[in-house]
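User: Round two. Same drill as before: sequence, then structure, for each protein.

Assistant: Same drill it is. First protein:
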Amino acid sequence: MNEKLKCLYFSAIIITAASEIYYNEECYRDIRKYGLVRRWKSENSARPLANLNAYIDLTGFTVDVKHFNKGGQDIPKEKVVAVQKLIRYPLLSCLKYDSPQLIEVIQKDFLDRNNANLPLNMSISKEEFLSDPTRFGDSQALDVDNLIFKGKLKDGFFIEAGGYDFEDQSTSLYFELKYNWTGLLVEPHPYYYEKGIHKHRNIASSRVCLANTDYPSLSTYNFETQAVYDEPSPGSMEFQCLPLYSLLLALGNPTVNYMSLDIEGGEFQVLESIPWDKVDIQVMSIESHFLGIRTEGSLDDLIKYLSERGYTHFPNVHKVGDEKQYIYRDKKSMEMKSFKLTNELFVRNDIAAKAGLIL
């Protein structure tokens, strides 16, 4: 295990804050839906659930797998039959994001690491990637490095959600390979995640969706859109979702130098779930083209929300390079509308000032 991740991991175990059952709408729903064993609560305030009542499924499904290309040629989708072990803990919804019991469950069942220090196993070499990162990866990391860190920050920490297969279009790989950063990659899609962990990157990873609440939830993940919804839809399954803050606590709540949030909708809601007075997140790239489409909240709403938490929006920094207009049906008016792929950069004011971007 990477020494930095090892230190973060073991420091996260030493959590002494008291906890208790966190009754909320989903907690009550899951109690009714899944039922309870005779003894489900304990007297231990740090571990209030006596029985977590886990569901472990070997689930087979057929999905259309999308492949990104590196040579400018379109690669058609292919149907893949996959069988994955999916773990769900319905009663986790009865624990708040900082529950010591929840953190222990995450460390045990929802975090993977390259503990054997296996060598990097990408489709290209490190040297090939660094020779032209924008060709083999996403340009967001270069945008951030050129504007904010200017090549000076070594051994940093990132969060990338969603991580896809940990290589194609990665927004964190550049920092790892060039400056020895480590971090956390989150990707719920079982097929892509399985490919990702075999890349042997020097990171922690989690095959979950991000919760938009301050407690874990069971939500519907759609394999085609790769997004989380409140209600079941064709091509979807119930997945375990965890609060981003809980995942951070499971790693010792490190300073996050850069976070890339690209989860195909729900970005605003995930950001709203974060207790900003308890985290240290410096720079964020946020996918914005689904704001107000798949979930509530416009870009203006997001800019206002993050401004109130000490972040400055820097528009037009990230160039997607895709001018194609995508069509969707507005849920309220039922009219057909269009959008372009967009990502927005937000920098915490003290970091922006240090980089000379604001006074």
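Second protein:
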Amino acid sequence: MESEKVDQCPLHGVGARPEVLVGRRLEEVIAAWHSSEDDGEAESPLDVWLLCSEGSPLHITTGSDWCLIVESAGPHTGYDMGGWGRVEVAPVGDRTPFAAHLGEVVLAVREEFEREAGRIAVEIDFASGRVRCDSWAGDLRLSALTPVADRDGECHRG
């Protein structure tokens, strides 16, 4: 009898381990955004690629089973989907929470898993805060989380 692995997506497998980011400087973030004439640009990107001081780019996106896919892969090019709009791929500028951490070193990474979907979230810590990447109803969601100073002035992750 084969045992089920909680940290593995049944459809996409284990993928890359985001811990490889620890100790690396975030140099660039590229994202893919869907846009259409009717709806304009999407609020959240479809994909993000983290390019660091060393190693391969880390691609973060969601799977059809609502898992969070993390893989070692470079950005693809944008494409036209006809009447369904376009997917543009470009540096994020200030459009994601990662923009505030460009040039910073990754201090820690935490992952969350569910039995049915495998990985569902990754939190990446920087000195000035952290970014949470998760799959929410099949969409990639990025959130900025900042350190919280206690009454002694010491910073703790909140």
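Residues 15 and 60 are 10 Å apart (CA to CA).

User: Perfect.
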